[in-house]
Design a protein that fits this description.
- This protein starts with a helix and ends in a 6-residue tail after the last helix.
- It is globular, with a radius of gyration of 18 Å.
- With 259 residues, the protein is mostly helical.
- It is built from nine helices and no strands.
């Protein structure tokens, strides 16, 4: 294993650890977490929409000569997550269309289908991050380090949002932290793929980015927006709106750190 691969693996392990460090403060106080969860879900809406529209989709279009391929993979991402959620809801309802079983997060072991969607989308997102880090180190160590720093800055708000959504879905704090960390390890898998196959995988990365963006758009628009609409209180609705704007604003600010 040469020095470039060592640097890449160290970088991707550091990025994976962000899933624990970024949410550790939130896991300390359950009372504060319970009070702020609806704001964190709103923040996640802004972060997911912002990440998909401000970062992922433009990056995919810039890297592919045929824009139609990117559009197709965005749609495939949306449809794939629709099918996945249908399957999860079918499993929860034991296959009967006339029986819709809603998971109550207050009940032990009850988890909303969105929990599995978040884990799936975050795993894909982290896989892509790992591949991007691996490819950047193939260019140069300096580019690899700068890319890693940019991804770390990007991952901190993303991982906090993911942790909050897993709690909202019904997972315990411990399980949410564990699942968030496991999904973050897909970044290591992404770097290993680049290590095994070399720069030949570079052409597939933009299409995977487009697919991941489609998943983010589906989760934010189909699952999270309807949830925050359940709050009709004017004061809380205003707070939710501000949280969404902050989530989008963070994604705009992170443009400064992109290469």
């Amino acid at each position: 294993m040469n020095i470039i691969n060592v640097y890449a693996l160290i970088s991707v392990f550091v990025v994976s650890l962000i899933s624990i460090i970024g949410v550790f403060a939130l896991s300390l106080n359950q009372k504060i977490l319970n009070k702020s969860i609806f704001l964190l879900v709103s923040l996640a809406v802004g972060a997911l929409f912002g990440d998909a529209i401000i970062h992922l989709i433009p990056e995919a279009f810039e890297s592919v000569e045929n824009p139609a391929r990117v559009s197709l993979f965005i749609i495939i991402g949306i449809v794939s997550f629709f099918v996945l959620e249908k399957f999860l809801r079918w499993r929860h309802s034991h296959g009967y269309d006339s029986v819709i079983v809603e998971c109550d997060p207050k009940k032990p072991g009850a988890v909303k289908p969105i929990g599995s969607l978040i884990i799936a989308s975050d795993s894909i997102h982290n896989l892509i991050d790992g591949m991007i880090i691996g490819v950047s180190y193939l260019i140069s160590i300096e580019i690899g380090i700068v890319t890693t720093v940019a991804i770390i800055l990007h991952e901190i708000p993303q991982e906090i949002s993911d942790f909050a959504l897993l709690i909202y879905a019904g997972y315990s704090k411990t399980k949410a932290l564990l699942l968030n960390f496991i999904s973050s390890l897909f970044a290591v898998v992404g770097t290993i793929i680049v290590y095994v196959f070399g720069s030949s995988v570079e052409s597939f990365v933009p299409l995977m980015i487009a697919f991941g963006a489609g998943g983010f758009l589906y989760i934010a628009g189909s699952d999270l927006v309807p949830e925050i609409h359940k709050t009709s209180d004017i004061r809380k609705s205003l707070q939710q709106f501000i949280a969404i704007i902050i989530g989008i604003g963070i994604m705009f600010i992170l443009l400064v750190f992109e290469i």
